[in-house]
Amino acid sequence: MFLLNQNPNYRKPLDPVDAETLGVKAAEEVERYLAHRENHAPTPLHSLPALAVELGVGAIHIKDEGSRLGLGSFKALGGSYTVIRLVLEEAGRQLGRIVDIAELRTPEVRAIASGMTFACATDGNHGRSVAQGAQLVGARAAIFVHSGVSDERVAAIARFGAQMIRAEGTYDDSVAEAARVAAEKGWIVVSDTSWPGYERIPGLVMQGYTAMVREALRQLPERPTHVFVQAGVGGVAAAVAGHLALSLGNLRPTFVVVDPARAACLFETARAGHPVKIDHGEPTVMAMLECYEPSLVAWRVLSRVADAFMTVDEEDAIAAMNCLARPVGNDPAIVAGESGGAGLAGLIRAAADPRIRVALNLDEASRVFVINTEGATDPERYTELVGMRPDAVATNAEGADA
Q: What local confidence, expressed as pLDDT, does residue 148 receive?
């Protein structure tokens, strides 16, 4: 399914709060925070010239978030950054002065952090980031996971010392349960989705993602003309689209939001013209994107700066994983998890549809940017879907680089 943005707010300026959250100054501050992380390094940007020829576009560049801060996904930028911000703010309140990131490991700050517990719901990646951030500052983490989260992903979060809590139902149900329990116990909810009255913290999570866009803009040889980004509740899509709009202005690229067909809450929200909660159906293989209600903050941004919304099917996502694992020509091999290649899957589907190509002005001169949002965060599932272990794909990639 494909839909151009028909919202009355389309192309209107961002809400001032969102403009401040996602602007250049905020992104520079995120990068300053990252500079204090011991394992921080910019993630690579790869060119896929052979695939570009195959799809009939001028260039394809993919930002590979599979190595981000040792967590395997872009989510590492959001949850941990927010936890650090909130700890420093609380330290500032208790100490009666501004506390900067350089003081994060001081005894005074760690003593304050030790009395704080951060909670969230997760499909896997966001919870890992919150747990890592809590461990880094000496705080506690309580992570809620629904029944669809694999044991392997649960173990990957628990290794950071987090308390793991299983919740019945879907991701959205686990969000509600995390909020309920946190309210009872006085925990701080660090959610990547927002609801009425709860917007600042999800905004900080989105703000963390802008560092990825800053890196990409420095790495790209030319400004992109088209960007395809996958969406769950919409946080990363809104962060990327919003920052590009604010930093590039009238030169910003055409931005396409890509949803799983089985969890297309943003597509249906765009079609309705307002946030909608869709029915839970058969689970999607794109587990990190299996969300049935959009983030209100993300929708507020995307209603203004997204140009189109589309869906991809299960086989599209699996084909994109395999396309990146077994590249055409001399393109590099890339390990992309089930959700990681969904943006590329959107491009592949759009490029094959003459109607969509015309609607997006997608042609042989187009320079397309996509993001591999996660590596093989569940290696066994990856092996099942690709027929190769992720380490074997990575070895092939290293061999090609050599």
A: 87
- Alpha-carbon gap, residue 328 to 313, rounded angstroms: 22
- Structure token digits, residue 254: 């055409």
Structural contact between residues 357 and 49, judged by C-beta atoms closer than 8 angstroms: no
Amino acid occupying residue 101: I
Domains along the chain with CATH numbers: 2-74+206-401 (3.40.50.1100), 79-191 (3.40.50.1100)
239-295: per-residue pLDDT in tens?
A: 999 999 999 999 999 999 999 999 999 999 999 999 999 998 899 999 999 999 999
The tens digit of pLDDT for each residue in 110-145 reads 999 999 999 999 988 899 999 999 999 999 999 999
> Tokens 């500079």 sit at which residue?
35
Closest to 223 measured CA to CA, from 194, 250, 205: 250
User: 354 is written with which tokens?
Assistant: 């003459």
Please report, as a single letter, which amino acid is at residue 209: Y
Residue 399 pLDDT > 60, yes or no? Answer: no
* Residue 327: count of CB within 10 angstroms of its CB: 20
Collect contacts of 379-382 with beta carbons under 8 A, ≥24 apart. 379/152, 380/152, 381/150, 381/152, 381/338, 382/321, 382/335, 382/337, 382/338
- Spatial distance between the Cα atoms of 20 and 15, rounded to a whole number of angstroms: 9
Left, alpha or beta for 72 (phi > 0: left; psi -120 to 50: alpha)? left
d(CA 149, CA 124): 7
pLDDT score recorded for residue 402: 45
> What percentage of the chain has pLDDT greater than the value 90?
92
Alpha-helical segments (H) within 107-168: 107-113, 125-137, 151-158
Q: What are phi and psi of 282, to 5 degrees?
A: -65, 135
Residues annotated as catalytic are 75, 123
Q: What DSSP assignment string belongs to 328-383?
A: STTPPP----TTTTHHHHHHHHHHT-HHHHHHHT--TT-EEEEEE-B--SSHHHHH
List pLDDT tens digits, range 158-191. Answer: 999 999 999 999 888 999 999 999 999 999 999 9
Q: Is the pLDDT of residue 202 over 90?
A: yes
Within 10 Å of residue 88's Cβ, how many Cβ atoms? 21
Side-chain half-sphere CA neighbours of 51 within 13 A:
27
Six token digits for residue 151: 């044991």
- pTM given for the model: 0.94
